[in-house]
Amino acid sequence: MPPKRLSILGVGLLGGSLALAAKKFIKSCEIFGYAHRPETLEAARNAGMLDQGFDRPEPAVDGADLVVLCTPVSQLSPLLQRISGSLANGAIVTDVGSTKRSVVAAGESLLQGDRYFVGSHPMAGSEKRGLHFASADLFQGATCILTPTERTHAPALQKIEEFWRVLGMKTTRLSPPEHDQLLADISHLPHAVAAALVAMQSDRALSLSGKGFQDLTRIAAGDGGLWRDILLDNRDSVRQSIHGLRKELQQLENMLENTSSDELRQWLDRAAGRRRSMADRQGNG
Fold first, then answer.
1. What is d(CA 134, CA 125) in angstroms, rounded to the nearest whole number?
2. Helices marked H in 134-234 — which ranges?
């Protein structure tokens, strides 16, 4: 059953898109929102995203049967602590954070009785940030990762899966530790590598960059504060990912030093084949 009252805490790109998607795909759903800037709340109301807006999270969750935390990773646990005493009986809380171990642990510790936490990570968004980039179709066709534990309330998990599917997403499940390691490999380390590739360039080199370099480093334009929080919260997994990348780069350096033409060609062809198969799978999905 879809929520009758949805509370979105943090009305930015993801929170605003979530509000628009809920307006589009869930009928008769009242949407409350929280943002700490009055101008953000006014813009959200003017855009038809919110039925009511609040500059404090506690009244924003009053009577909500579903609460979605859409703030940066560093704010998720403190926000859970603030709202834990204001949630209605039977309320379900989820989030959109890019790391899961810390927020799931906080959610399961702070929400007691018949108030439930289910970790979510919708794999949607962009390097852009802000309410004015929000779109009702942001979640269409993308994957949402749910991160249940042995303590997760099964009916709450099912409701959260149904919620994301109604918004057009595919869902899958991972444990919080598995999520954080896999996301370190495919999301967090790539962002750091893109930033490093930009940082190492001279101004002269950047002035000569073409579409390939710009495509490869597009994500480096993301918000530094947001990505700092992600990298620090998941630092042990990111360090493991760095170790894996370092091994591949060492292999490349050795092949170049030894002029290993055949081995280098095979290495490049393997990577090209895996990249093509990835594109084929996504195209057939």
1. 9
2. 154-166, 176-183, 189-199, 203-207, 211-216, 224-233
Domains of the chain: 5-174 (3.40.50.720), 178-284 (1.10.3660.10)
Roughly what angle, to the nearest 10 degrees, separates helices 224-233 and 189-199?
130
Cα 234 to chain centroid distance, Å, stands at 13
Q: In what order do the strands lie in the sheet with 52-54?
A: 52-54, 30-34, 5-9, 66-69, 92-95, 116-117
What is the distance between the alpha carbons of residues 123 and 249, in angstroms, rounded to a whole number? 28
Unique residue bearing structure tokens 């794999």: 123
Asked whether the beta carbons of 245 and 189 are under 8 A apart, the reply is yes
Segment (H or E) for 267: helix 261-284
Cα separation, 50 vs 61, whole angstroms: 13
- Provide the terminal-to-terminal Cα distance of the chain, rounded to the nearest Å: 26
DSSP 64: -
Who contacts 174 (Cβ-Cβ below 8 Å, separation ≥6)?
145, 146, 147, 182
Under DSSP, is residue 7 helix (H, G, I), strand (E, B) or coil?
strand
Per-residue pLDDT of the chain (285 residues; tens, 9 = 90+): 789 999 999 998 999 999 999 999 998 899 999 998 889 888 998 888 999 999 999 999 999 999 999 999 999 999 999 999 999 999 999 999 999 999 999 999 999 889 999 999 999 876 667 787 899 999 999 999 999 999 999 999 999 999 999 999 999 999 999 999 999 999 999 999 999 999 999 999 999 999 999 999 999 999 999 999 999 999 999 999 999 999 999 999 999 999 999 999 999 999 999 999 987 766 554
**217 CB neighbour count, 10 Å cutoff:** 19
